[in-house]
Amino acid sequence: MDEADRVQQAFAAVPRAHFLPRGARSRAGEDIPILIGRGQTSSQPRTVGDMLRLLDVRPGQRVLDVRSGSGWTTALLAHLTGAAGEVVGVELEPDLARWGAANVARAGMPWATVHRSAPGVLGDPEHGPWDRILVSADAPALPRSLVEQLGDPGRLVLPVAGTMTLVVREHGSLVSSHHGHYRFVPLRSDTDPAT
């Protein structure tokens, strides 16, 4: 099965509506970003699909989901890793972290969790390295601290200054490529002094 089919299966298995505020659930099928509170959004499905295809998640991998918001991307990633994998979502906003954790718990995939980011820390370096890292917020520059959390081999997908960026680490080398322009909420610069 190719990656596009695996991503489509994940979308079918993890309905976006379950990860939206009650009043927004009727709009879950619209290909638009939807506000989820605290100035954050649930990214439009087409954008999430593009990012997941670039990330190329494999069963059994360890995946970090940065700015996990409602937990939807965390649950999608958990579907892609399967029960042999591990997915950790980190969210800066305490209210969203609690809500996202509850949403992921209800999804019935105990190998996936969401917790609040440690103050001043981007990602989860304590539990790295990670096979895959997904970032759902726009960084002004490539965050060195996240690159340092990436395993070898590993893939990191994030928007950098509005451009979707894929960083691949393999045999000690890093290769970056660019994959179109996207709009995201900003990745808070106070979480990563290295940017």
TrEMBL record:
<dbReference type="InterPro" id="IPR000682">
    <property type="entry name" value="PCMT"/>
</dbReference>
<keyword id="KW-0808">Transferase</keyword>
<dbReference type="Pfam" id="PF01135">
    <property type="entry name" value="PCMT"/>
</dbReference>
<dbReference type="GO" id="GO:0004719">
    <property type="term" value="F:protein-L-isoaspartate (D-aspartate) O-methyltransferase activity"/>
</dbReference>
<keyword id="KW-0949">S-adenosyl-L-methionine</keyword>
<comment type="similarity">
    <text>Belongs to the methyltransferase superfamily. L-isoaspartyl/D-aspartyl protein methyltransferase family.</text>
</comment>
<dbReference type="GO" id="GO:0005737">
    <property type="term" value="C:cytoplasm"/>
</dbReference>
<keyword id="KW-0489">Methyltransferase</keyword>
<protein>
    <recommendedName>
        <fullName>Protein-L-isoaspartate O-methyltransferase</fullName>
        <ecNumber>2.1.1.77</ecNumber>
    </recommendedName>
</protein>
<keyword id="KW-0963">Cytoplasm</keyword>
<dbReference type="GO" id="GO:0032259">
    <property type="term" value="P:methylation"/>
</dbReference>
<dbReference type="InterPro" id="IPR029063">
    <property type="entry name" value="SAM-dependent_MTases_sf"/>
</dbReference>
